[in-house]
Fold:
Amino acid sequence: MSSSNDNRTDIERRKNEHIDICLREDVQSRAVRSDAHRGNSGHIDSSRSGFDSYRFRHNALPEIDFAAIDISASFLGRPLQAPLLVSSMTGGTTEANRINRRLAEAAERRGWAMALGSGRAAIERPELAESFRVRELAPTIPIVANLGAVQLNYGYGADECRRLIELTEADGLVLHLNGLQEVFQPEGDTDFSGLLRRIEKLCRELDKPIGAKEVGWGIDGENAGRLFDAGVSFVDVAGAGGTSWSQVEKFRLPPGVRREAAEALAGWGQPTPACIEEARSAVPDGCLIGSGGLASGVDAAKAIALGANLAGFGRSLLAEAVESVESIEEKLAVIEFELRAAMFGIGAGTLEQLAETNRLIRPGG
Amino acid sequence: MSSSNDNRTDIERRKNEHIDICLREDVQSRAVRSDAHRGNSGHIDSSRSGFDSYRFRHNALPEIDFAAIDISASFLGRPLQAPLLVSSMTGGTTEANRINRRLAEAAERRGWAMALGSGRAAIERPELAESFRVRELAPTIPIVANLGAVQLNYGYGADECRRLIELTEADGLVLHLNGLQEVFQPEGDTDFSGLLRRIEKLCRELDKPIGAKEVGWGIDGENAGRLFDAGVSFVDVAGAGGTSWSQVEKFRLPPGVRREAAEALAGWGQPTPACIEEARSAVPDGCLIGSGGLASGVDAAKAIALGANLAGFGRSLLAEAVESVESIEEKLAVIEFELRAAMFGIGAGTLEQLAETNRLIRPGG
Amino acid sequence: MSSSNDNRTDIERRKNEHIDICLREDVQSRAVRSDAHRGNSGHIDSSRSGFDSYRFRHNALPEIDFAAIDISASFLGRPLQAPLLVSSMTGGTTEANRINRRLAEAAERRGWAMALGSGRAAIERPELAESFRVRELAPTIPIVANLGAVQLNYGYGADECRRLIELTEADGLVLHLNGLQEVFQPEGDTDFSGLLRRIEKLCRELDKPIGAKEVGWGIDGENAGRLFDAGVSFVDVAGAGGTSWSQVEKFRLPPGVRREAAEALAGWGQPTPACIEEARSAVPDGCLIGSGGLASGVDAAKAIALGANLAGFGRSLLAEAVESVESIEEKLAVIEFELRAAMFGIGAGTLEQLAETNRLIRPGG
Amino acid sequence: MSSSNDNRTDIERRKNEHIDICLREDVQSRAVRSDAHRGNSGHIDSSRSGFDSYRFRHNALPEIDFAAIDISASFLGRPLQAPLLVSSMTGGTTEANRINRRLAEAAERRGWAMALGSGRAAIERPELAESFRVRELAPTIPIVANLGAVQLNYGYGADECRRLIELTEADGLVLHLNGLQEVFQPEGDTDFSGLLRRIEKLCRELDKPIGAKEVGWGIDGENAGRLFDAGVSFVDVAGAGGTSWSQVEKFRLPPGVRREAAEALAGWGQPTPACIEEARSAVPDGCLIGSGGLASGVDAAKAIALGANLAGFGRSLLAEAVESVESIEEKLAVIEFELRAAMFGIGAGTLEQLAETNRLIRPGG
Ligand SMILES: Cc1cc2nc3c(=O)[nH]c(=O)nc-3n(C[C@H](O)[C@H](O)[C@H](O)COP(=O)(O)O)c2cc1C
Ligand SMILES: Cc1cc2nc3c(=O)[nH]c(=O)nc-3n(C[C@H](O)[C@H](O)[C@H](O)COP(=O)(O)O)c2cc1C
Ligand SMILES: Cc1cc2nc3c(=O)[nH]c(=O)nc-3n(C[C@H](O)[C@H](O)[C@H](O)COP(=O)(O)O)c2cc1C
Ligand SMILES: Cc1cc2nc3c(=O)[nH]c(=O)nc-3n(C[C@H](O)[C@H](O)[C@H](O)COP(=O)(O)O)c2cc1C
Structure:
């Protein structure tokens, strides 16, 4: 999520603007409800995320002990205390560095997986690499490095990816597919032709696991299938309902064609729950991350019941991430508590039981 | 609905807070409509209770005499002038005592059944037992004692239950299943494992009828079946749409994980009409109470047409219950009048005809 | 719509209150949308009447001449310039007299049928009969006298009906079925048992045509069938969506049980379009009037396309009826123009073509 | 869209009023949502246009190069840089002249097709013809002349049409079918009988291509079929959801029957997407223009995916058209960019792929 020909100040400004806009403006996708009352903060309105259309049927006789509910999981060969992931957000600037370190420390304490923001800056400007190094703060959890898939069409290959994984001491690399975001960036990299073949090649060449993700418009069943066929180890659907990146870029654009056009795409994208369901049925055994618009641990429970192995949170964590490690840590604990409460409410004592529950329904149809 | 290790002042405070919060705050469930305008009083908004989705087809030629409509019923071996129940609410404090006495007196005058709030305080602190004794005010109607089912996992057995029935001179005992409420209480009793077997044992050991109820998240068909198989004499579905107990507890909690998490559960639970329909088809002959979010006698008529034998009202009565016997009595009379008007509107002269009407429809699907 | 034991001043007050309330308060039924924004005037909000759920498919090539559209019809053996009816509203007081005379004069000028309000006052107090005599102002149009069907259970028979028809010089008599309204009137006549048999007897005994109508809760297919079997000559469905009579009575009631209960019935009743469809399929050849909540000539066109022979307007005309003959006349002309415009829009040059159009659809289902 | 017996000042006033009203008042059709919040400007609210009910399923792996997307098309034998059309709007007055010249210049620069407003004034008052001559500003693009089809019933024939095509140097002529608008014009031409036969005759007699369009109520599948059978070369559905011409005329009418009646027709008409779908399936190979309520290039993409060959924009361009060529040009560029972005988002590199995509869905049903 960085464009070519940036100098250091440009990167710094863009990254900080992204964070500021995500905290201050209403950048929530309108893919689910075009007519919802517009908010204006970093908060995700769950009636606009698509998860509200799904409901758990309550179980008045759970027949389990709340204290014994087991939500431990694993990812990329490392154990997790919860099936939860901090989604890729930032890196490359002083403020990003602070955010990443806070997120990493909190994730380590709570046993969540942690994904870094796009590491392109770290590759191209070694002096920025520092801000992506959080391993010392998070020695035991899975860490995922992040890069734009489209860079494979702009000179990147196995070498650059290997370098990024090494300098971040990551357990794997996730490539983001963000076509529409590039289109709305002034000098975006918009040649997405032949990417699948290049991803396939990369998967063969690297010995660390490679994943693919969207950034808020969603990976559907068809593409999840094509990606696993190409050799990825996991797919993060990053569906619509949460952050809309055409909206975020709109707030940064100067007056002109792109800025005027952004609004028309505010409702674009495949809602996250649909992505998860489709992807799971297309790829029965693949490792899936459900993310995009999750606002609570109840949403995480729905994501898992719909077929995700892990559930990811992005913008929902941002307000706390600019504050302190303690704020984030409490936020993560709240999400876990909500997840456990939901599991208790349907009588699921393990993630397997949650994944196989018949108590998730879609009243509308 | 009381937690361990309470001293008298704690109980007093908690009970009073429950009542205050139910009267002042918007604690209505969002299980039916997450986007409804939020109210802020003790009043139940019927567009949020699930009963609005059901409608009676009007009968312009009722062919009956309004004055001859017969709504007399019976419960636990005693006759009722109406198929209606005051749901379990309170007991154990001076103010609770006043409320219970007013409710009992009004119920006796109108011939409703009356359920008491949780009697755990009465068992554990004999000096509080007084506030549960309302039989002198209500000599002819069925009175139901109430206890948390989960206490069977925390040392309670047939003896304690017998003692409670005796000191309340009740005709039966209802056990409440309130897992999610316990989870949101600081020192809640949250081990719900193996409860069904213990309920079964209790039913065998006691010679008074035992029932089971939820507290606002609903008992579905599957659990209604399991409960009757275990030997209960009646089930009160206490479904979602009315009072949300995670919301009530939220207003009492100090800042922290639980308080932050409560909001995410505000929409939890199975709407009351669905519970009744499911339970009736799972248990064709069992005695069912339809409650949770009922706001009028028209809702009561719908509950009965959906399969309930009695209809229960909780928070709808609270505003009047803190006022005077006369207020409650008028409120009960209003509900009866609405029930009769609905029966007249479809031409049902008896509760049997109401139960078998084909004039209840669900326009949406 | 008058209750027993009234003296003249009582009648006068009640009739005037009905009119005032209908003009000033929001008495629109909530049978169609319980959540609509509440208005507070005599105006009917068409999004709350049920007709908005039906739409005409536009015909861009009508292939007819707007000026040649023929909407002439007939009713009770007299010709009409439009298939439209002024619904029963008032009579029996000085102000009612003025309203009836204005309505009759305007109906005569535009060639509409005209129904009078309940004539019970005229029977019981001959001195009030004058206010029901409008024939001199409306020599050519069909005039319909009106009486509560329930009076047949309270001493009325063929004699009283004959007398009413004679003194109003009416072409027929319509009996209103208003059970729920009687229930909400302090001393309402609420014994509706055995009414159908009495209607049957009356139809045999009288040589003028007898019809039946509701007052805003609707006559469904089943009852339309029973009424025609009993010998009525026409049925006016008077369905829900327009004026709610429990609401109207609510505004008149003193504090107490009835007043408190009225609100719970505000959404009662079968929406008018459903009544018409059902009744037409139950009674393929019976003469049907579609009324209840009609707000425009487009609604009238829908009523006819759904199966009505005539379309009736009540409260929609009231604001003009208290003003002047000219106001009503213009209002009637507006409704006719809307009806013609709708017919032009689907290319129907005659009422037969309108009745048989396949261009009325119900997008929602 | 002009009525008989006008003198020059009348025409001038009416045309200017149309433009003013379209810019200032809420004239958006309520055919799609009768309950939407009413706006009050020239802006089209896309949640009211019907296109919001259709969504594109996002393709995270478009596998194409955004820069290589090809949207070139052709119409009436001339090449277009985009499959887009400026819909018929104005002509005949000084201000109209300015608007037409700006639109023509911008359309030429961006390679859009351009339709003129009704040319009746040019035929009947040669001194006004000047304002329809824009060919000098738009030498390469297709220009379409415009006339009311109903004029064929009021003395117009092949000669007048030929004259209009010649003086506008147009590539074809489109006849508008605007029955309901004529009805709401004080001296409108409302005899639409036998028009189809006359259109057929005209198609035979003229050697330039003849098309047919509505003005905002839509041409459905049945009529599209009849029109192609009659020999037209293209049909512009001009469906409901955008400008409502009964609303526009309402704002111009003096108090009286017509003005009062207009509101009842505000929801009339067949929504544009339905028209396109129906028309395409009725006429698999006919040239179709999708217009009526299009607010963005995403809507244009939907129109094409539903079956249109070109997409037309009317009132959406008006605010810019009264400003400057540069404003319109930017507006056209924005629409093109949105169209390309939508194509990129589903991975369609050509208009053929867009037309055949299986990625357009209708979530509601
Ligand atoms: C401030 C911010 C920065 C982001 N940066 C990246 C990034 O560098 N790489 C990436 O793949 N996704 C990035 N994302 C997208 C998120 O990983 C996530 O897919 C998206 O925001 C949707 O999830 P959400 O609704 O939970 O925020 C970013 C999101 C936010 C809010
Ligand atoms: C103030 C208050 C106190 C309550 N206390 C109890 C209780 O002690 N035991 C119990 O089983 N239910 C208790 N309930 C739950 C009610 O019995 C009922 O199931 C629930 O409120 C849903 O019904 P409603 O929507 O009509 O209020 C209480 C409810 C209220 C409003
Ligand atoms: C002021 C007023 C008085 C009415 N009085 C009578 C009446 O005496 N008899 C009767 O059968 N209906 C009466 N009605 C009912 C109307 O005939 C009609 O059925 C009902 O209002 C529904 O139609 P609407 O929605 O067009 O008003 C009255 C209605 C109004 C508004
Ligand atoms: C100001 C204005 C003037 C118009 N004049 C004409 C006209 O002369 N002839 C015609 O066929 N349509 C005319 N139309 C209708 C448009 O061509 C178009 O069919 C209609 O406005 C619906 O499209 P829209 O929703 O994009 O505006 C006019 C529209 C506008 C806004």
Remarks:
- Chains B and D do not touch (no CB pair under 8 Å).
